[in-house]
Amino acid sequence: MRSTLATLLIVSVAGCAMPPVILLPAHGGGPGCRGIGLGGVVRGDPQEPDVVWLEEPATGRRLDLELRWPPGTVARFTPEVEIVLDDGRVLYADGDEIAGGCATADFDVVNIVPDP
User: How far apart are CA 33 and CA 31, in angstroms?
Assistant: First the structure.
């Protein structure tokens, strides 16, 4: 009986696939931010080179920006994208709007900084 129960448990666990989790490009963090308005909607696909991107809310056009996240932030696909901080909090999910970020010296790169 014990052997059968252990086998069932192993088969059950083996059959549960974990959602894909991908470490996102990080910014250096730290204080100071030259805030900019973005107005982009979060989208993601684990098969894309840029796993997470922003789209214009009105048109769905993909914004040509490189996003940088707080260190340790991951994209989790369940199957839609969730942006998860290193403490486990979901920062954004598919379809959420990011209203702003921090400008960098490279105008195509935006640091995303969560509200405290």
Answer: 7
What DSSP character marks residue 96? P
From 106, 105, 103, 116, select the one nearest 38 (Cα to Cα).
103
53-110 pLDDT, tens digit each: 999 999 999 999 999 999 999 999 999 999 999 999 999 999 999 988 888 888 888 8
Take residue 48 and report the two structure tokens written for it: 């894309």
Alpha-carbon distance of 62 to 71, in angstroms, equals 24
What is the SS3 assignment for 10? Answer: helix
CA distance 35 to 47: 31
Integer Cα distance of 98 and 93 in angstroms:
10
Whole-angstrom distance, CA of residue 71 vs CA of residue 112: 11
Question: What's this model's pTM, rounded to 2 decimal places?
Answer: 0.77
Q: Let me know the angle formed at the C-alpha of 99 by 42 and 37, rounded to the nearest 5 degrees.
A: 120
